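Course exercise 7: structure representation. Students receive a sequence record and must write out the corresponding structure in token form. The form below is the worked example handed out in class, using NBS-LRR-like protein (423 residues). Read each field label carefully; the graders check that inputs and outputs are placed in the correct fields and that the protein name is recorded exactly as given.

STUDENT ID: A-19
EXERCISE PROTEIN: NBS-LRR-like protein
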Amino acid sequence: MLSLPSTSSSISRKKYDVFLSFRGEDTRNNFTDHLYDALKRSGIATFRDDPKLEAGEEIAPELFNAIQQSWCSVIVFSKTYTFSGWCLEELAEIVQQKNVNGHKVFPIFYDVDPSDLRKQKGKVEEAFAKHQERYKEDTDKIQKWRNALTQVANIKGWHLHNRHESEFIGDIVKKISAKLCQTYPVLHDELVGISSRLEQLYSKINIGEDDVRIIGICGMGGIGKTTLARVVYTQMSPHFEGKSFLADIREVSNKCGLVSLQKQLLYQISPNECFNFCNVHEGNAIISRRLSSKKVLVVLDDVDNVQHLKCLVGRRDWFSLGSRIIVTTRDEHLLRSYRIDDVYKPTTLNTNDALRLFNLKAFGGDTMPKDDFNQLSEHLVHYVDGLPLALEVLGSFLCGRDIVQWRSAIERLDRLYREILTH
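STUDENT ANSWER:
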């Protein structure tokens, strides 16, 4: 995956994730058709032009709109792509959106040499000779096409070479899925230091792989396990046919029992169905039947007993390929004993991020404290040792209080710290 965007960025969801640009007569009924199907199966909203739109001479306005309403464009450069003025006009609009609005561009070199596109030689040179003959009076158009082609051909893309198409397409879908998951963050300034954590976690989740994967998020209380799980759940949800987030499982299980949790899981994934059963064994059977044909995302938050896993996610064959189960817990042994695929262990925040988070809470959204409070903030953060929840609680407690009260809090922490060291 690419590096994550800043947590302070505000990105609105586009109508489409991917705009497919391709030469219809080259790849519509083979490679591009297979790529389109694979993207759709992975839950990626993809625009592919209707063949009827190609009947006219000029590019249809619908295509310009679709490009503008897409997060990225995937351009399938095939042998006769550059012979199509339609394709080159699309390409120019894609580059315009890239340069002005940050539109992402991913070229695929399908049986073409990128250097031929960059240098505009061979078949590409032949194609432009025809365009120049046709558009003698519009040299600006030709130059616009040439510039767009050169710019995109210089982007690192995907090469088919001698690979099997199905494997090649699978890799493309994985990479696009991975990038998309990190592109529509439901993040805000208070989620300090989360970008690097998400990047590490996503590398373990590996959403593009066509398998059933169970990932644990493990660490002490207050380290940010649930926050991470919620962000991942929100970002990844569009890529699944069903989803369920079961919060506070330890507490809910003690109060309401496992059957209640099983029903909650089923209802969240299939909200239009009614489930009546009285014990966990019946629940297990229904979960395995209902979910075995559906690609789902399940988050089990605050698990402290292996029975939670046995009754809610059972075995991998309960789930359809591509499903992901994320488990948050303080007990790493519990995860290892269940033989989950991987464990992510969040670390505490570094000094800069810890100070930023504390200041956000202590100064009502302002990361820069008043001069009188600067050293006091640093002193207080030192005691908390980068634990996110403790930083939030302490910062919120001191928000709006005067400097005398801040110094009093430091004195109490000093005493507590000395008592701990002497015992």
